[in-house]
Amino acid sequence: MKRQFCCLLALALLMPAFTFAADTVAFTDSAGRTVQLPANIERIAPSGPVAQMVLMSIAPERFVGLATALDRGEAEYMANVPDLPVIGQLYGTRGDLNLEELARLDPQVIIDVGEPKDNVAEDMDALQEQLGIPCVHITMHLKDAGDAYRKLGGLLGAQEKAEALAAYCDEVFARAEDIMQQVGDKRVSLLYSLGDAGLNVIAKGSFHAEVIDLVAANAAVVDNPTSKGTGNEVDMEQLYLWDPDFVVFAPGSVYSKVGDDPLWQELTAIREGRYAQAPQRPYNWMGFPASIQRLLGMIWLQKILYPDVVTYDLQAEINRYYELFYGQPLTGEQYDTLMAGALPAK
Fold this sequence. Notes:
By secondary structure, the protein is α/β, with parallel strands linked by helices. It is built from 14 helices and 11 strands. The chain is 38% helix and 12% strand. The strands form 3 sheets. Strands 6, 7, 8, 9, 10 and 11 form a 6-stranded mixed sheet that branches. It has a 3-stranded parallel sheet with strand order 3-4-5, with helices on both faces. A two-stranded antiparallel sheet has the order 1-2. Strand 4 (109-114), helix 5 and strand 5 (135-139) form a beta-alpha-beta unit. Helix 6 packs antiparallel against helix 7, helix 7 (159-183) runs parallel beside helix 12 (294-305) and helix 12 (294-305) packs antiparallel against helix 13. The longest helix has 25 residues, at 159-183.
């Protein structure tokens, strides 16, 4: 975060001085900050990929630029994807904000959505001062995603669309909790594996483990869970000790190799075919970035882990999400593509 500020100082030479229009409103964000904003917001910029994914579902027509580019394979799953320049991320590990492009695009507000980082209020204040653009933070976890959408609806004057998204989030999360009450103490022990060798795991209690911790018994219990999307690095011996009931592999990991690998065959779940690959497109359903698409991961995981309890039709539920959040239902071919590897191997 701090290393960004020296770069941001250069924006003073590029961005017109920020002045509040006569028609402004006071908005209190999730960090408790009261920020003066234009009453009519038509130009927004996301702080990063998590915010981009959320805002794309409620107000794609108001984007002036993207935090990360969408490739053709991702965009085909979304209706009306704006063809916009990439401005990069405001802060974080990448820190690739394009100051000149941001100045040219002149957003009215920069919106940060997701997990509140340490000192989020101070960080937002500092960014706003350095950029000369109002910056707001909206906290969003899966359990309170509905509330976050309602707050965004008030911010953007898009209450009707926000309420449709919020009601869906509330309904799906409540159903997931009800399913887990029915499952009771018969939770499946699950491990999420990622990385080129499959030896990074998403540990219990980390922000990225929200879905896993909700719908399963997360086998990856470590002393210091990392908040990074790369997870905690372990070794095969540790995997053998955990010996989970089910393994989910990240897209692009070692899913296609473990069935013939003697080392992975030592795990009961692999030997007995109780493993799958997380679907993606337009984004990884398990997160990475950890945004609203994790609802898809929750819906999918509960169906494959607890088929005797879960009664909904998986394809119908996935179509419902895509139509509401991405503006179009899946074709049969698209659904089949998403499910390739997403069902237990045996």
